[in-house]
Design goal:
This protein is mainly beta. 13% of the residues lie in helices and 49% in strands. It has one domain (2-156). It is built from 1 helix and 9 strands. The radius of gyration is 18 Å and the shape is elongated.
């Protein structure tokens, strides 16, 4: 597993560095909740495969558009050597959280891979965004319907 971590972490950090370099003017912010999850398939005397995935969110602080980015690395080895390493990653654009441009801040979190909290599929994620020019916060939750499409809802928070 230490081989996986040695190979996964540089891929994740290189992706974060690329995103950070693009945000020099502070228009784009990187989520504070990057996670990494690894799994492995073990079979005595056969090939072993370990797969690590990590994700983050990149948020446009002016328009409230955001991207979900994911990187993965798969390592296959036998008892003596690493046989194959494959890596993949991309960012997919999501809808705006707010309809108008302003100055926004945000954070994001995501459910872990399939588990007891994930009834219909691979789980979901939530985005929280706030307008820094006024007292305005919106929470959005997206979950897999299990029927091929995601369901998303955003709600404005009330202050009491």
């Amino acid at each position: 597993m230490s081989h996986v971590m040695k190979l996964c972490l540089p891929v994740v950090f290189s992706m974060v560095t690329v995103v950070s370099a693009a945000s020099a003017d502070e228009l784009f912010k990187l989520s504070n909740n990057q996670r990494i999850a690894c799994s492995r398939g073990l079979a005595a005397g056969k090939l072993n495969t370990a797969t690590c995935k990590s994700y983050t969110y990149v948020f446009n602080t002016k328009t409230s558009e955001y991207f979900r980015c994911q990187v993965s690395l798969a390592l296959t080895r036998d008892n003596k050597e690493v046989i194959n390493v494959q890596a993949d990653g991309s960012c997919s654009k999501k809808l705006r959280v707010f309809e108008t441009d302003s100055n926004y801040t945000f954070d994001a979190t995501e459910t872990e891979p399939p588990n007891t909290n994930s009834f219909f599929g691979t789980g979901g994620y939530s985005i929280w965004a706030a307008d820094t020019t006024q007292q305005k916060v919106r929470g959005c939750i997206t979950i897999s319907s299990g029927l091929g499409s995601d369901i998303s809802k955003c709600l404005d928070m009330t202050f009491q």
